[in-house]
Amino acid sequence: MKNQRKIGVLLSYASEIIKIITSLVYTPIMLRLLGQSEYGLYQLVYSVVSYLSLLSLGFTASYVRFFSRYKARGQEDEISRLNGMFLTVFIVIATIAVVCGSVMTIKIEAIFKNGLTTDEYDTARILMMLMVLNLALTFPNSVFTCITSAHEKFFFQRLLLVLQNLLNPFLTLPLLLMGYGSIAMVVVTTVITIAHLVSNIWFVCFRLHAKFIFKGFDFSLLREIWGFTFFIFLNQIIDQINWSVDRFLLGRMIGTSAVAIYSLGAQINSMYIMLSTSISSVFVPKVNRIVAETNDDRELSVIFNSVGRIQFLVLSLVMTGFIFLGQPFMRFWGGKGYVDSYYVALWLIIPVTVPLIQNLGIEIQRAKNKHKARAVVYFCIAIANIFLSIPLIRQFSSIGAAIGTAVALIVGNILFMNWYYHKHIGLDIPAFWKNILSFIPALILPAITGVAIMKFAHVNNLLQLILWAIVYGIVFSISMWLFGMNESEKGMILNIKNKIIHRRH
Question: What's the whole-model pTM score?
Answer without folding.
Answer: 0.80
